[in-house]
Design goal:
This protein is an alpha/beta fold and 345 residues long. Helices cover 34% and strands 23% of the residues. It comes from Lawsonibacter hominis.
Length: 345
């Protein structure tokens, strides 16, 4: 497509969905000098218009279906911010229309849909970014810089997503439904799976998982724990829970042959002579489920830079498929009561 990767082009963005997270995407795309929100898709034209005004894009066109919006010649990028069960169909439509695509996590609710999405994206040759926004969280960026020197080779790690989603949470009405949200792991705990993959220098070969739950308002068990076995012999544990009676918790615990990182606390006595206890790193941590707390501008800057310079994104659909496979393997293991091998067919 001529001019697709033009360095001076302003890329037109269409936001699909007008819920909570869409506002952060609108603001982030509006902040980037090479993108402009030109359209929104909402089932309600009135709601779409209200969202456009609230987020400072009053001139954005409002469509009531994605099919209408994909006909807009000014749309170069489609940002999918709809409930989870709609991601697959909308991604495939956007790919077939030749649009670059940002897909909020999770990419899909089943493996067949995920594979169909990848096939459509591969055929279209469009850029993709999956919304694992914690890649740009300051703790994660800092930990990546520290890993080689202060942690060394990781032999064990733990990540946790503990978030009591209740009626006060903006996505509560659908995220607790199995056919829409999927599970606590699919809807939110997938962030913990993606976090694990960022730091372990090996692929997962086996997943064993168990679930339990104590809430009656969920259509799935609210708590899941999984054990991961990696090709290089390392191990990991991931927890995901909507049951927890606690403020939001996201743990990143990394254990290496040189040192240990417990969230923002580092212990590496070989590299820090005289260290007697953990030292605290003054850095922002992923300690909130509020989307306004997340680094969306940095995520969008990365996406636009990759489009402009014809580079693969850090969290492309192809990469996110590996995270998704672990999620599906964990849910399968818990449901069937046995370990599940990876990769999936």
């Amino acid at each position: 497509m001529k001019g697709w990767f033009s360095m001076d082009k302003i890329y037109g963005v269409m936001i699909v969905g007008t819920g909570w997270v869409s506002g952060e995407h609108i603001r982030a795309f509006s902040m980037n000098p090479y993108s402009k929100v030109v359209a929104l898709v909402s089932r309600s034209e009135e709601k779409g218009r209200t969202k456009a005004l609230e987020c400072g894009v009053p001139d954005a066109r409002v469509y009531t279906t994605i099919d209408e919006g994909l006909k807009d010649p000014d749309v170069d990028i489609v940002c999918i911010c709809t409930p989870n069960h709609l991601h697959a169909e909308q991604t495939i439509k956007a790919a077939k229309a030749g649009k670059h695509i940002l897909i909020e996590k999770p990419i899909a609710l089943n493996w067949d849909d995920a594979k169909a999405m990848k096939a459509a994206v591969d055929e279209a040759g469009v850029k993709t970014l999956v919304g694992y926004v914690l890649h740009w969280n300051p703790l994660f960026l800092t930990a990546k810089k520290l890993q080689q020197q202060y942690l060394g080779n990781l032999y064990y790690a733990e990540t946790d997503y503990f978030h009591r989603v209740t009626e006060s949470y903006p996505c509560y009405s659908w995220t607790c439904q199995k056919g829409v949200g999927g599970s606590s792991l699919l809807a939110g705990g997938c962030h913990a799976v993606d976090a694990m993959r960022q730091f372990m220098k090996s692929e997962v070969v086996e997943v064993t998982a168990y679930t339990s739950g104590c809430r009656k308002d969920l259509e799935f068990d609210g708590t899941l724990v999984m054990i991961l076995k990696f090709a290089n012999g390392a191990m990991a544990k991931i927890g995901s829970s909507y049951d927890t009676i606690s403020p939001y918790i996201f743990n990143l615990h990394l254990y290496g042959d040189k040192g240990t990182l417990l969230n923002n606390k580092l212990y590496s006595p070989e590299e820090i002579p005289g260290q007697l206890d953990y030292m605290e790193i003054p850095v922002t941590t992923p300690d909130s489920g509020d989307v306004t707390h997340h680094p969306f501008p940095q995520e969008i800057d990365h996406f636009i830079d990759c489009i402009r310079n014809d580079k693969e994104t850090e969290v492309s659909l192809a990469d996110a498929m590996k995270t998704q496979a672990i999620v599906f393997a964990a849910d399968k293991s818990a449901a069937e009561g046995h370990p599940v091998k990876l990769p999936l067919d």
